Amino acid sequence: MASGFFVLLDDIAAIMDDVAVMSKIAAKKTAGILGDDLAVNAEKASGFASSRELPVLWAISKGSLLNKIIILPIAFLLSAFLPAAIIVILVLGGLFLAYEGAEKVYEFIVPHKHAESEGITEETLTEEQILAVEKTKIKSAIITDFILSVEIVIIALGTVIEEPLTQQIIVTSIIALIATIGVYGIVALIVRMDEAGYKLIKVSKSEKSFSAMIGNILVKALPLVIKGLTVIGTIALLLVAGGIFVHYIPYFHHLSEEIKMPAIIKEFVVGLVLGFAVLLVINLVKKIFKKKTA
């Protein structure tokens, strides 16, 4: 009896060790999406009245958790009964990632005029109007999160698709939890940077004091941090997409083996080229549709 108990403990320890290793691998695979998720949500959670930033972020976080609760069972059912669908969804997700990354690169090279976002302050809007705008932006953020969550779950599941279903469920659920708690926890710290800076400036005895200097740095750093995350997220998107194509599409896998250059460069180039191809197709379809409706 005792020996059987210790054998069970040893088996559990072995499983948890495998789970830890696979979770680390899955986390690396999804790092690009998490970076983009972080950049997107930091941008969406900023611009609100100071007192409303955290409540808005909490509402988006709850929506993100609900997204994971919806997506995870569907992904596990596909893995159990139709595993080939996981690869198909993974490649389709890669095309979306490549398109999203290429679109950001294109907009950087060929700047577009975007409508200026409406300021959300108590001075220009009533309380009812503020809440209405918040609800709209929260809904938009949760929809964006749903798309990114699908990609995160499928990529994480794709790394353990050959493992037993139990380990797939544990590893993918861990990554999904990290994607919600980790990302939105960091976003909360980022969007409060300027508020912390203003408080330091306010309590400073002089403009040249150390606390005032730190406060000014935090206030000025917020937009730079968000822009920096956007750039890093874009590069990561193309790398993740290229990695998916190279590993799961035989043609690109054989092509990458023939080309002698670092894997990271090959994956970035493949992601960028296919991303621009998808972008070109989508833009052509949009132009054709506009001509028909004109």
Task: Write a structural description.
The chain is mainly α and 294 residues long. It has nine helices and no strands. The N and C termini lie far apart (79 Å). The protein is globular and about 65 Å long.
**Span between N and C termini?**
79 Å
What's the helical proportion of residues? over 70%
Number of strands: 0
**Count of helix runs:** 9
Biggest beta-sheet profile: none
- The best one-word shape is globular
Q: What is the ordering of alpha helices and beta strands?
A: HHHHHHHHH
Low-confidence stretches: 1-19, 114-122
What is the alpha-carbon Rg in Å?
Answer: 23 Å
Give the rounded overall mean pLDDT: 75
Which percent range describes the beta-strand content?
A: under 5%
Structural class by sheet pairing and helices:
mainly alpha
Jot down its keywords.
single chain, 294 residues, mainly alpha, 9 helices, disordered N terminus
Short description:
The chain has 294 residues and is mainly α.
Strand-helix topology:
Layout: H1 2-45, H2 53-81, H3 83-109, H4 127-159, H5 165-191, H6 193-203, H7 210-248, H8 250-258, H9 263-293
Helix pairs in contact: 1-4, 1-5, 1-7, 2-3, 2-4, 2-5, 3-4, 3-7, 3-9, 4-5, 6-7, 7-8, 7-9
